Amino acid sequence: MVLGGFLLALLLLIGGFFLGYSLVKIPPANALALKQSNVYLYADGTEIARDGVVNRENVGLAQISKDAQHAVLAAEDRDFYTESAVDPQAMLRAGWNTVTGKGRQSGSTITQQYVKNYYLGQEQTVTRKVKEFFIAIKLDRNETKDEILQGYLNTSYFGRNAYGIQAAAQAYYGMKATDLDPARAAYLAALVNAPSEYDVVAHPENKSAAVARWNYVLDGMVKQGWLARSERAGLTFPMPKESSVSAGMSGQRGYLVRIIRDYLTGNKILDEEQLAAGGYRITTTLEKSKQDAFVKAVDDQLMARLDPKNRKVDSYVRAGGAAIDPRTGKVVAMYNGVDYVKQYTPNATRRDFQVGSTFKPLVFASAVQNHSETQDGRVINPNTVYDGTNERPVEGWNGSYAPENEDGRSYGDITAREATDQSVNSVYAQMAVDVGPDKVKETAIALGLPATTPDLTPTPSIALGPATASVLDMAQAYATLANHGERGTYTMIEKVIKGGAEVVELPQRTTSQAISREAADTTTAVLQSVVQNGTGTPAQAVGRPAAGKTGTAEEDTAAWFAGYTPDLATVVSVMGQDPVTAAHKPLYGAMGLPRINGSGAPTEIWSQFTRDALEDTPATDFDLQLQNGADETLAPPTDPWQTPDTGGQGDGGTWPPTGGQDTQGQDAGATQGQTGTPTDGTTGATPTTGGTTGGTPTDGTNGGAATGGTTGDTTGGTNGGPTPTTGGTTGDTTGTTTEGTNGDGGTTTGTGGTPAAWQP
Length: 760
Fold this sequence. Notes:
By secondary structure, the chain is α+β, with helices and mostly antiparallel strands. It is about 30% helix and about 10% strand. It has helices spanning about 1-25, 65-75, 90-100, 110-120, 125-140, 145-155, 165-175, 180-190, 205-225, 230-235, 255-265, 270-275, 290-300, 360-370, 415-420, 425-435, 435-445, 470-480, 515-535, 600-615, and strands at about 40, 45-50, 55, 160-165, 280-285, 315-325, 330-335, 385, 415, 485-490, 495-500, 500-505, 510-515, 545-550, 560-565, 570-575, 735, 750. Strand 6 (about 315-325) and strand 7 form a beta hairpin. The protein is elongated and about 90 Å long. The relative contact order is 0.08.
């Protein structure tokens, strides 16, 4: 019975094979003839662009260099000339790997791939695979191996809208296929595997993967005896030229189409083959009015001020920007470059420029999220005092790290809020260690940076922004902060329709609480201070509540501003790149200025764009829920009996000094009790005018004068007098000043308190 069953199955298999072989005919070559355009639309239905013009030139095998032929064989099918048309074992293995979740694999020979490209469509169905199997067998009997290879090389897609190796050689290197050498041929052969991903001009962040594939091809050529090992050793990676595209893709259109295609393939909505076949109507989340506003802002604030004919550095200037609605996660506008025809790389999605100090808020958010403490045990909040001395070695780290502040400036004792205002490197390097660099990295990824972001390494330097996230990546992270810590992966697509009827299913958008609302909102409050008091003050031109952070890459190769209102999160970067060599270049002297930093052109672009983009949206304030104790000043503990070496500030001033004016003269929880303000609140200065006593203090500070008292008097008021002998704890309700003010011999008492460390 077993033998009979086996023989019956074998007969059925053989019968099925011959039945299929007889029924399946070789169809006419119509795949490329039926190719249609894809139409890309703004959210309102206005057309962005359409692709679909076939860039293809058929050539004979004799017009394709041997190196190019061998490179493609080494990449795709090294046993092509000796194997059969199909490889059932490879097909079964690929099918099993696909079913078991090891990734989709084809298991196809070059003959099968040619059949798919030339005779069939790109749909992933069992029917198509069965047809491919039988047509390949028949084709192998009717055509020579050279004819099949020639057909394959003329129909394969190489990216840049190039079909066939002749078009690819022209698109990437400006030469004919017959002139391709081993190095260039190996790169083109590598592209067949992932045309968009391995285009190192469009995606410089993927260069390492492309080079690895290039090396794989060359090693295969050596192994097969097609390339001498000595010649292989002398080859260097051949950078392709910038893309030459049709006028229909000029301006921003080509960039947007390229990014949308990458989004569709990256999220497995459509693959390269399906897009190449065409016929899709793709509605995006981009809003035309906002897109136009972004272009105008860059033109007004940057491009109009460049003079590349008289200043060579101005020819290096590039700009990138991205804007996301924080509530919906929709990408509503992007700026990628002056013109897709002239500058091929999309600047909004490239990942090869450092983000600089725009990363610092992610460190602070991580500190609040993780309830982190300083090395001496103080919970980190906006008013936690740090040592901002230039090149101060970080504490609590195994290695040695002492970062320099911008322009080598030392700040002394400074709060975390003010350190953010002034972008103090020494403070944030220490904060990264206090939090734990690994936790900082986790928070950055949770907020929206890809885990694969280059140079996102868990060391103290992570705080200074060596990571090379894209503008769009940073917009995602800041949009999460703007949305109170709730993250939903950004989206660019509203709907995709095939043939006017078939709707392509889009991934379900999900949201999650990436960090606590308190962590996100407290970070927002700190970033509001940057706009109000710090390096981001030019962003006040937006005319509505805003939060943001400036940033500068190492050697000033890029300047950033990342910011948001409750309605829109936008990141802008101005970058320096040599248009010929593609090398990163410093921007010293650009626009006729000594340097470009984040508070210059990036913030000015951000302000104009955000103002215009939200012109019809009523201004709203941030609805914030702050960290418990966010208003408490937490200074480092010192000897309670030690008198400060430098004079303090008059009663009513702030610590650390913020420019000499304090309108309240009290800590959190105290009642406002004065009408005057000191005219000079800097360390060691004495107020020259004093306020009036506002009544009995209701809240005593840690060992210092009661905080609801006077703003100072005309007799002085420096913290140089006798040290308080007793002190009330913060929050005591009956502390009173028994005589005078600090500096003229008075003491402070409080009920229920315990002696506390002296603080400024």
